[in-house]
Predict the 3D structure of the following.
Amino acid sequence: FDPSSRRIAVRQTHSTILLFDIEKATQLWTTDLGEPIRCILFHRQGRYLLAGSESGNLFIIDAASGKTERTIAVGFPIGAISFTPDGTQVILFNMRGGYKMLGPARR
């Protein structure tokens, strides 16, 4: 869910993300990232959606349009994504318990 709880992002296929407007019961967009996606997370302000892939790419997606704004290669399969409490850094977790911090995140 986004911070307003009005939209939800789901993995539709292995590589496709769908954004759905819950109040209007409509699909807003879909995007195919071309590789298996393991996790999805909205930034706390809802402007961006982050998606982590099995191949070790972090996709920064504009939540309004579904367009990928940036792709960052992190060097390991991303199993989970989190933000620090202040929202300025992203923490990426791999499948073996390791992690990497990136920041500062966009506000």
Q: What stands out?
A: The beta strands are 7-11, 16-21, 26-32, 37-42, 48-53, 57-62, 68-73, 78-83, 90-94, 99-102. The first strand starts at residue 7 and ends at 11. The CA atoms of residues 45 and 101 lie 19 Å apart.
